[in-house]
Design goal:
heterodimer, A: mainly alpha, ABC transporter involved in vitamin B12 uptake, BtuC, two-stranded antiparallel sheet, two-stranded antiparallel ribbon, 10 helices, globular, B: mainly alpha, 2 domains, 20 helices, 2 strands
């Protein structure tokens, strides 16, 4: 029983990474009807930018002697990194996706893939092959509830990601921009005629998605402090699968499916040999998609590939 | 209007016209013959020429590698290229224009197959002597041929069928492991499966059967994807096939009896150049016939409008499943060859990286086109070998190139064109006289 609860805690942690990344995929899909295949690498870039910001802030503290507490530095890091990374997203949209808006969607997918490779290799070329270790901004303390061990980092990770998801939900439901985004995802063709420019909504979507990925990157860096340029590949593709599982274009679905993927993976690794984790997780996904082709919350629409 | 007509009738001038005149009137067989001659010159005189030009050895891949490593040797390399390839090809092609045209006209009268075989024979001869000089060339050439097969087969799905499949490395892995298991189990004494069950000497002759076996396993795997995913349209196949790719890779990592994560090694050396070349030619021929058959037309109809195709009595689901399995079969055969060329496979070589590579090839070359696939596969594989000295910067240059292609030609360089061997092999003399 203790082990079960322990696994739930771990699953919540992994689920928050998946959910935060999957949200970016899903939002872009709901607006532009295409998957941003560079998103996993934006997560990686976010983690590296977070590394830079955190190091700079720590250096600032050491230089000026202002005793900033660790949690404040962490919050500052998250906010600054999200801000910077959102411009990476805007840049990618401007360079890679906007010129291809009328092109076949597969071409845009290929462009995304290639931008991802450029981000990975560019990172490798600039920073070299050595792995960086993410600075530990807060002291790790372990709390014990019954037989379950919970570190403050895990609480922080789940807490921050849930907060971000809540903020995103409020933004989309209550703000004017959010309303524009919802309208755009409802009808891609008619809304631009109503005076809402796709060229403003699409960058906004990319910016928000990238910011969330960056937050996931920092949180990932807190939990697993080793950064390498290819860390975005595996997590990114898995989050992509989660976005599908939740239903394309559904924000709530993406978040839920992200957590669910975390649960499936952790429990598959717990019950079966851990090397079989991917086989079992993906087989379950395959089964779910066989019976619910549009995911949990997706609308059953047939999309014709514009080829 | 009249002025324009006059303009057209005036003889063309300038460098471009001169170039056109230089290259006009030479049939394909003339070019092949001159390439063969140039390769022979390199084979016999290459060492001598490179010695006099101050090169350490014969430039392996047209000097790309040497140029990028030692820029001082650029004049020598250029001289070598002109002396060994440029001049001889041009001279032989020009001087043999008349007999070559006669031969082409003679072949044109007979059946296409004989003409094609003679052309391919010349082509193979050139490659044989070209690769005889270095093992590196041989490896690059074999891998390029395998890349052609992979690109063609994924073009059937992504181009002709208009879906987006991500599972090609998975099919390749199935084929590679299937074929390797057959050859290692039956015809090789190795660590994994013990002694050979059948006489080792028979192995080479049964190798095609092993390849077909690998291909069939891949096709069976394709059925797993095809049955659930062709019920709806859209990006559905992309996701299912992606999940399939992960499952296959992870499953192979977990199966200890085929080596697990360590992979399989010491495959017998069956995949020599003639074998790879023959299989590639067969693959091009069969896929070309497939996409031009009724089935291929039905496939295009499904892509353009599924509902209309259904109304026109096309059994859309069956068509899609057959085409998908067909493509997977060839990917499996290519995988089997891949395993026997490298003589080592591990699950790591069939991941997302490989997928990006294959997709790059097909979208670079052009969708819905056999020629495009060949061009894409050859250019990306040669480019990625030629840029090897740049190390990781290679993976910035190639993606950038591909993005540029996507921005300016979203369906690839040579998309939606037909591949017609008969037209290619025609004598060129007539056309000039007509003009």
């Amino acid at each position: 029983m203790d082990l079960f609860l322990q696994n739930i805690v771990n699953a919540l942690q992994w689920g928050s990474f998946y959910a935060l990344i999957a949200l970016g995929y899903s939002m872009v899909y709901s607006i532009l009807m295409l998957f941003n295949f560079a998103h996993g690498d934006i997560f990686m870039v976010g983690a590296y930018i977070g590394f830079g910001v955190a190091t700079a802030l720590l250096g600032f503290v050491a230089m000026t002697g202002i005793p900033l507490p660790g949690w404040l530095i962490l919050i500052l890091t998250i906010i600054i990194t999200m801000f910077i990374t959102s411009f990476v997203g805007i840049f990618i949209e401007r360079v890679g996706y906007r010129p291809l808006r009328e092109a076949p969607r597969a071409s845009a997918a290929i462009t995304g893939l290639m931008i991802g490779i450029i981000l990975e290799t560019g990172n490798l070329a600039i920073l070299g092959a050595r792995r960086l270790s993410f600075p530990q901004l807060i002291e790790s303390t372990t709390y014990q509830f019954g037989g379950v061990y919970v570190t403050n980092k895990k609480i922080l990770i789940v807490g921050v990601s849930l907060t971000l998801m809540f903020l995103l939900h409020r933004f989309i439901q209550k703000s004017k921009w959010g309303m524009a985004m919802r309208a755009m995802s409802f009808d891609f063709e008619a809304v631009p005629l109503m005076g809402i420019s796709i060229n403003r909504i699409a960058p906004l979507t990319f910016a928000i998605g990238s910011a969330l990925a960056a937050a996931a990157g920092i949180l990932y860096g807190l939990a697993y402090p080793v950064l390498d340029p290819y860390m975005g590949i595996l997590l990114g593709w898995k989050a992509f699968v989660a976005a599908i599982l939740g239903g394309r274009g559904s924000i709530l679905g993406a978040a839920l499916a992200g957590f669910m993927l975390g649960f499936i993976e952790i429990f598959a690794a717990w019950i079966f040999p851990s090397t079989l984790r991917d086989v079992i997780a993906y087989s379950i996904i395959l089964l779910i998609l066989t019976f619910r082709p549009h995911g949990f919350f997706g609308k059953a629409h047939s999309t014709q590939l514009r080829l | 209007m009249e002025e324009q007509n006059e303009k057209d009738q005036r003889p063309k001038k300038g460098f471009k016209a001169w170039l056109q005149k230089l290259f006009a009137g030479i049939p394909l067989i003339g070019w092949l013959f001159s390439v063969f001659g140039a390769v022979l010159i390199e084979y016999f005189l290459g060492d001598l020429i490179s010695y006099y030009l101050g090169l350490p050895k014969i430039p392996v891949l047209f000097g790309f590698l040497t140029v990028l490593k030692k820029p001082l040797l650029i004049p020598g390399i250029i001289g070598y290229l002109i002396l060994v390839y440029g001049l001889p090809i041009l001279l032989i092609a020009k001087s043999l224009r008349k007999p070559a045209n006669k031969l082409a006209a003679f072949l044109d009268k007979g059946p296409v197959s004989i003409g094609a075989i003679i052309h391919l024979g010349f082509f193979y001869g050139a490659m044989h002597f070209w690769t005889d000089l270095s093992d590196y060339r041989l490896l690059v050439l074999k891998l390029t041929m395998i890349a052609i097969m992979l690109t063609l087969s994924i073009n059937v799905i992504n181009g002709y069928m208009g879906e987006f499949s991500c599972s090609h490395p998975g099919f390749m892995a199935l084929g590679a492991y299937g074929a390797s298991t057959i050859t290692l189990l039956l015809f090789a004494n190795d660590k994994l499966f013990g002694d050979a069950l059948l006489p080792v000497a028979l192995g080479f002759y049964f190798f095609p059967l092993a390849l077909i076996g690998g291909g069939l396993i891949a096709a069976l795997g394709a059925l797993v994807i095809a049955i659930p995913s062709f019920r709806t349209r859209g990006d559905y196949l992309a996701i299912i096939s992606l999940a399939f790719l992960f499952i296959v890779k992870s499953l192979i990592e977990n199966l200890e009896f085929i080596g697990g994560p360590r992979g399989m090694s010491s495959q017998p050396n069956y995949a020599n150049l003639p074998m790879v070349f023959t299989v590639m030619v067969l693959c091009i021929w069969i896929i070309n016939n497939f996409v031009r058959s009724t089935m291929g037309k039905a496939l295009n109809a499904v892509r353009d409008n599924e509902l209309a195709a259904e109304v026109m009595t096309v059994n859309t689901r069956k068509t899609k499943i057959i085409a998908f399995m067909f493509a997977a079969f060839w990917a499996g055969v290519a995988g089997g060859l891949f395993a026997h060329v490298l003589r080592y496979v591990n699950p790591g070589s069939f991941g997302i990286q490989r997928l990006a590579e294959i997709l790059a090839m097909v979208y670079f070359g052009g969708l819905n086109s056999v020629t495009g696939s060949i061009v894409g596969a050859v250019s990306i594989s040669i480019l990625s070998e030629a840029l090897r000295p740049l190390e990781i910067y290679k993976w910035i240059i190639i993606p950038l190139l591909l993005i540029l292609v996507m921005l300016f030609r979203p369906t690839g360089l040579i998309a939606f064109t037909e591949f017609n061997p008969k037209e290619l092999m025609k004598p060129k003399k007539k056309r000039i006289e007509e003009q």
